Structures are given as structure tokens and as C-alpha cells.
């Protein structure tokens, strides 16, 4: 297997009119990796998905997929990737098998080979008993599995998914990630977008998007460890006044986020009684916990995760 990245993105920028949705993003994804682009609506992750999957042409920068230039050879890129959209891409009035047969013909497959390959994919995804069922009778998780079967029919080396867990219950999400594990074991690279923090934690690496740029890039564990120690959240009637008072008395840098005062400290359990002794009357409640991906997002952007305007 080549040592070159499965996906290489270099200084990509994209505008919708006056709005610059992606602003100079660069990163690589290794072959066989599960890579998650995490961000709230408006962060630019969906635009990157569209660029990687060749749904929209590049304006600035370069993207190579499996060593193939998206700018110069978009048709060749499409032949090497499987794409799963956020919105359903199956025909609800057709049966499960009919959907796969129709999709396979779009990739030049046909005859007995297409049917046998379709049945094999459905068996692999646990849909053998649903082969003749109309898609409209399936659950959300089953429909998503049909879309995965479609996307993998031509044996692509990269799977690109936009918000794949949207609308799925926890059990269906677990099934989805079990299937991802089987694919990566076979060398398939998976690139997905998500606004679900718990979803991103399952990826090998995460790129956190914020206002069209990469705010952070690393493994989930490394990102959380980068904050160090514990996270404290203080609730108070006047958060700015409390944050200023804490900074004046302790060698700390508190931030005010969403009406609360937030702190990172190596030994939060030891800091709590000191804060209560010093500012007890001003503190209504204290929450102590280990850093989460949202804490990482707050540390890198200055505000909570779900506060962005809608972006398409």
C-alpha cells in the first residue's frame, strides 16, 4: 500500500457570494483512517464534504483523493470513492435490491455480477431478509445500511459521509460504527462530517471546524489531554465580575462562556475549596469534570459548540 495520504487538502478556500465558507484549510488523512470533521452548522464542514466528493468544483487550493487531483480529474475521483449523503438517496418506492441494481448500473456494473455483488453486500450489512422489501417500510437504520451498500458496491477505497448518524437511534449508530471497523480493517479510508460530539470521539482523528477554519486537529484523546487536568464551571449572577476577581487573586485565566465562568486546572478538586472560600457568596454552583471535546472547542474558539448560524 502506498505511503501517500488517502486525502490531501492544501489551502482550500470556497466562497458563496460574499460569504467565505472555507478559509485556507489544510490537512491530510492517512489510508485506512477514520477521520471526522466536527463542527456546528456554519463551520464549513459540509462545504468541505461537497468539495471532496466533487459535488462542487474547487475555487482555490488543491485536493487529492488517493493521489488523484480533484481539480484535474473529478470523474476519476468519483470512480474511487463511495458517497453517503445526509439526506436519503434511496428511492422509497423501489425494493432494497432494486435500489442497489439501479445504483450499480450508474457505475458501469451489470448482469449477474451486479446482482451477486448486490446480494453479497446486503448479506454483509444484515439486510438479506429485506431484499424484496420496499425501502419505505424500513427503519432509519436499515435505510442507512442500504445507502452504505450502494456506496460500497464498486469497492471504493474511500468512503465519504455527510452526517451519517443523523436520525439514527443509539443502536443503529453502534451498528454503523461496527461496519466502519470492518471497512478500515480492509484498508478503506473513512472521512465523515458530524455535529455530534459523541460521534466524533469514535474517530481515529478529528478536525474541529470553526468559521471555515481548522480550530484543532488531533486524536480525541490528545485534544482532550491538551487542556490538562480538570474543567470547572462556575454559575454566578455576574460571571464577568467573578472571572475578573478570580484572575486578580489566582494565577488563572478564567473565561466567560454562555453565562458561566470556566476554568481549566491540573487539580480541580483542590481548587474548588479555594474558590469557595474566596468567593462563596458569589458562587451559586460548581461543576467539576474531565475535559470534553466541547471544552476543547470552547478553549480554541471562545464560545460553546452550538451557537453558529446555519451554513450550507
Give a topology summary.
Elements: E1 7-16, E2 19-29, E3 34-38, H1 45-52, E4 60-65, E5 68-69, H2 74-78, E6 81-84, H3 96-106, H4 111-124, H5 140-152, E7 158-162, H6 170-185, E8 189-194, H7 197-200, E9 205-210, E10 213-218, H8 220-225, E11 230-235, H9 239-249, E12 255-257, E13 260-265, H10 268-279, E14 285-289, H11 293-301
Parallel strand pairs: 3-8, 3-9, 6-7, 7-8
Antiparallel strand pairs: 1-2, 1-4, 4-5, 9-10, 11-13, 11-14, 12-13
Helix pairs in contact: 3-4, 5-6
Question: What is the H/E order?
Answer: EEEHEEHEHHHEHEHEEHEHEEHEH
Radius of gyration: 23 Å
- The fraction of residues assigned to DSSP E strands is 25-35%
- Say how many strands there are: 14
CATH homologous superfamily classification of the largest domain: P-loop containing nucleotide triphosphate hydrolases
State the helical fraction. 25-40%
Main sheet overview: 6 strands, mixed
Could you give a quick summary of the protein structure above?
The protein is an alpha/beta fold and 312 residues long.
Verbal overview:
This protein has 312 residues and is an alpha/beta fold. It folds into two domains: 7-223, P-loop containing nucleotide triphosphate hydrolases (Rossmann fold); 228-290, 2-Layer Sandwich (Alpha-Beta Plaits). Helix content is 35%, strand content 26%. The protein has eleven helices and 14 strands. The strands form three sheets. The chain has a six-stranded mixed sheet with strand order 6-7-8-3-9-10, sandwiched between helices. A hairpin with a 2-residue loop joins strand 12 and strand 13 (260-265). Helix 3 crosses helix 4 (111-124) and helix 5 packs parallel to helix 6 (170-185). The radius of gyration is 23 Å and the shape is elongated. The two termini are 36 Å apart. Residues 308-312 have low confidence and may be disordered.
Amino acid at each position: 500500500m502506498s505511503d501517500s495520504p488517502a486525502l490531501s487538502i492544501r489551502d482550500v478556500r470556497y466562497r458563496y457570494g460574499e460569504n467565505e465558507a472555507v478559509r485556507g484549510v489544510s490537512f491530510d488523512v492517512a489510508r485506512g483512517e477514520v477521520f471526522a470533521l466536527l463542527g456546528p452548522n456554519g463551520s464549513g464542514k459540509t462545504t468541505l464534504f461537497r468539495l471532496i466528493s466533487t459535488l462542487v468544483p474547487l475555487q482555490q487550493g488543491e485536493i487529492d483523493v488517493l493521489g488523484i487531483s480533484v481539480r484535474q480529474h473529478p470523474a476519476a475521483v468519483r470512480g474511487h470513492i463511495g458517497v453517503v449523503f445526509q439526506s436519503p438517496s434511496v428511492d422509497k418506492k423501489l425494493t432494497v435490491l432494486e435500489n442497489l441494481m439501479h445504483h450499480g448500473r450508474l457505475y458501469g456494473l451489470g448482469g449477474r455480477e451486479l446482482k451477486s455483488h448486490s446480494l453479497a453486500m446486503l448479506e454483509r450489512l444484515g439486510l438479506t431478509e429485506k431484499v424484496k422489501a420496499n425501502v419505505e417500510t424500513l427503519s432509519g437504520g436499515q435505510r442507512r445500511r442500504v445507502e452504505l451498500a450502494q456506496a460500497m458496491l464498486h469497492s471504493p477505497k474511500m468512503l465519504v459521509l455527510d452526517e451519517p448518524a443523523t436520525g439514527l437511534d443509539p443502536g443503529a449508530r453502534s451498528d454503523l460504527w461496527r461496519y466502519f471497523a470492518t471497512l478500515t480493517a480492509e484498508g478503506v479510508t473513512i472521512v465523515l462530517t458530524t455535529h455530534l460530539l459523541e460521534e466524533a470521539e469514535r474517530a481515529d482523528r478529528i478536525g474541529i471546524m470553526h468559521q471555515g477554519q481548522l480550530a484543532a486537529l488531533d486524536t480525541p484523546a490528545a485534544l482532550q489531554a491538551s487542556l490538562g487536568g480538570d474543567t470547572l464551571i462556575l454559575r454566578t449572577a455576574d460571571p464577568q465580575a467573578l472571572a475578573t476577581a478570580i484572575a486578580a487573586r489566582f494565577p488563572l485565566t478564567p473565561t466567560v462562556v454562555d453565562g458561566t465562568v470556566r476554568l481549566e486546572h491540573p487539580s480541580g478538586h483542590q481548587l474548588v475549596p479555594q474558590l469557595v472560600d474566596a468567593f462563596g457568596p458569589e458562587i451559586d454552583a460548581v461543576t467539576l469534570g474531565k475535559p470534553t471535546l466541547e471544552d476543547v472547542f470552547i478553549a480554541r474558539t471562545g464560545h460553546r459548540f452550538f451557537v453558529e448560524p446555519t451554513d450550507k
